[in-house]
Amino acid sequence: MDDDDTLLAELRRIAGIVDPVPADLLFSLSITGFDIEVCRLVPQPPAGLLAGVRGDEETTRATFESASLTIMVEWTAGTNGTVRLDGWLAPPVACRIELRTVDGPQTMDTDEGGRFAAARISRGEVQIRVHATTDQVADGVLTVVTPSFVV
């Protein structure tokens, strides 16, 4: 046993004396299945080719893919440290979009073309969750989640 293992064992022993686990504590974990599908970020062209232009503003794009859905987003700098985020789903699907942002979640529905937009979100980490409708869930469609990305 090396010094780290000895130290950890001693810390466990002391923690057990100072703050023991209550005898009546019950712990149970049951996982029956996952109802989400995680996207992966699609590699993008070099930075010079990635930035687009809308008027005088710089636009940044990212694409995420999963087995069932592609999520394309672009964001443009706004005012006061905010950005406008526009997104598209392929294939187009009507669903609920949840943007998890540094200011908390924002929800919106896609239009018939699978498009969605958030006019003002604070700069920082964002995660997109695409929630299937009740009918889609009944057909086995999963919630699709992107990894967090920075806008």
Shape: elongated
Number of strands: 12
Content-based structural category: alpha+beta
Strand content: 35-45%
Number of domains: 1
User: Uncertain spans, ≥5 residues at pLDDT below 50?
Assistant: 29-33, 48-54
Distance between the termini: 47 Å
Tell me, rounded to a whole number, the average pLDDT: 82
Radius of gyration: 22 Å
Assign a percent range to the helix content: 10-25%
The major beta sheet can be summarized as: 6 strands, mixed
Account of the 3D structure:
17% of the residues lie in helices and 44% in strands. The chain is built from 3 helices and 12 strands; from the N terminus they run H-E-E-H-E-E-E-E-E-E-E-E-H-E-E. It has helices at residues 3-18, 47-50, 134-138, and strands at residues 36-38, 40-41, 52-54, 57-65, 70-77, 82-90, 96-101, 104-109, 115-122, 125-131, 143-145, 149-150. Strands 1, 7, 8, 10, 11 and 12 form a 6-stranded mixed beta sheet that branches. Strands 2, 3, 4, 5, 6 and 9 form a 6-stranded antiparallel beta sheet that branches. Strand 7 and strand 8 (104-109) form a beta hairpin. The protein is elongated. Residues 29-33 and 48-54 have low confidence and may be disordered.
Q: Top keywords for this entry?
A:
12 strands; elongated; six-stranded antiparallel beta sheet; six-stranded mixed beta sheet; single chain; 17% helix; 151 residues; alpha+beta
Annotate the secondary structure layout.
Blueprint: H1 3-18, E1 36-38, E2 40-41, H2 47-50, E3 52-54, E4 57-65, E5 70-77, E6 82-90, E7 96-101, E8 104-109, E9 115-122, E10 125-131, H3 134-138, E11 143-145, E12 149-150
Parallel strand pairs: 1-11
Antiparallel strand pairs: 2-4, 3-4, 4-5, 5-6, 6-9, 7-8, 7-10, 10-11, 10-12
